Amino acid sequence: MQKLLELHAELTGKTPARIEPNRTDEGRVGGDEDEQPLNEMLQAIASNRNRNSDVVLQRVLKALGKLRQDPDSFGECEECGDEIPLGRLEAVPYVEFCVNCQGQKDAPKGGPTRKKLTDYT
Length: 121
Ligand SMILES: [Zn+2]
What we know:
This protein is 55% helix and 0% strand.
């Protein structure tokens, strides 16, 4: 699942195939005094914007783990076990549920149940 790996690399800012253990210490640019306010600013921006990306990353990691441990079950809905259509997997490589189950999970809880038009007749 190349797409999943690419997404993971994009989210973590790392390329899986390239490992540079000493990079953080040696390749540092700029002093700590200058970096600090910038980091705080970036974190403030990121805290809002990246919240969603963190969730995505968790799901990507989970999907990758699943892919490693049980490749056969990858691409199957975790809820009903149905095969998830390839188009959906390509759009959302870390998708866990089929359209039906996702729809049920996304449905508001406690509120009025949204029914099909035919249910009202
Ligand atoms: Zn399902």
